[in-house]
Amino acid sequence: MVGILTKTPASVMPMNALPERFDGQALPIDLHMHSTASDGALSPEALVALCASRGLTHLALTDHDSLAGVDRAVEAGRQHDLVVLPGSELSCQWRGINIHVVGLLPEGADDELTGGLMAQTEARCRRAEQIAERLQRIGLDNALERARDAAGSDRPLGRPDFARALVTAGLVPDMATAFQRHLGRGKAGDIKSHWPSLATVVAWILGANGVAVVAHPLRYGLTRRKRGQLLDDFQAAGGQAVELVSGFQNPDVTRDLARQLAERGFWASLGSDFHFPGGHLAPGSMTRVPRTAVAPVWTHPRLQAAMGDVVPVA
Ligand code: AMP
Ligand code: MN
Ligand code: MN
Ligand code: MN
Predict the structure, then answer these.
(1) Ligand 1 contacts CB of residue 284 (under 6 A)
(2) Which ligand is nearest to the CA of 189?
């Protein structure tokens, strides 16, 4: 399952090498982050520079439904001697729930994925109009223009832009309340009907020779059993990996999730889901992955060439 590993003694371990298994060690890698190409605050260049200053050696830029920041991030990575993997976090739906699937894309996009991303942009546009209509009913007039102002650029709008518009208009005290009352799961602004199915986005990623990863599986409010069903359906669709660690999470829960991954032979990814400085997260900040038999996603055959040397754990 692990594929061909480059066996290098630790004494001559190359810079930018990654371990072949999780052994409880801190890792200089973050495979889930956002830039101004979606709802992140930093430009791709500023994000990569921050990653370099924090000692990371490997990262993936995973903006929502977009690869628009990837070329700039890869170029910045070259300048900082950092491995930057193209990626995107795709919105989809499974059993009426809005699920996120990260595509790690060593070769970038093919025609089908490019077409898929164009459809995602259109879906985001139509969804924004519908969210605006609904927020107008609760007193946010000109909601679409307000969200556009909050975004501060012409990128596709997301729910955080509407949340910020609600705060600016004085209708809620802060972003968290905006999501709790109006935009979070089950609320008026949580509109999923525009997104394609889980199987569709997985097919786009696989078609582009990428690895499909279930993003933050603990953040959908699922029971363990239902999470298992999500993982089964994802695997049946061809999905290969799951984020075992996303930001900070309880160690017991992480070990339990590792068991769900091991039972199914998934590879494990990890990321901070960093969006902006000044919060509780920074690039690379996340709970350590515990010692586990689950294989790191960088040992997946499709990622090995792009992510560099893999070395045995000493
Ligand atoms: P969208 O991609 O438009 O569906 O918006 C989803 C994004 O909203 C997530 O990626 C987060 O960045 C943000 N988000 C989701 N829930 C919350 C929350 N409770 N508070 C703040 N931001 C949130
Ligand atoms: Mn986001
Ligand atoms: Mn997400
Ligand atoms: Mn994310």
Answers:
(1) no
(2) 1
What CATH number was assigned to the domain covering residues 10-123+194-311?
Answer: 3.20.20.140
Cα–Cα distance for residue pair 194/28, rounded to 1 Å: 36
> In sequence order, which residues have a C-beta less than 8 Å from that of residue 2 and are 6 or more positions away?
20, 295, 299
Domain map (residue ranges) of the chain: 10-123+194-311
Q: How far is the CA of 63 from the centre of ligand 4 (A)?
A: 7
At which residue do the structure tokens 């995973």 appear? 62
pLDDT at 3 over 50: no
Kindly state the DSSP code that residue 180 receives in the 8-state scheme.
Answer: I
Helices (H), 208-281: 224-236, 251-264
d(CA 247, CA 230): 21
Q: What tens digit of pLDDT does each residue of 134-184 get?
A: 999 999 999 999 999 999 999 999 999 999 999 999 999 999 999 999 999
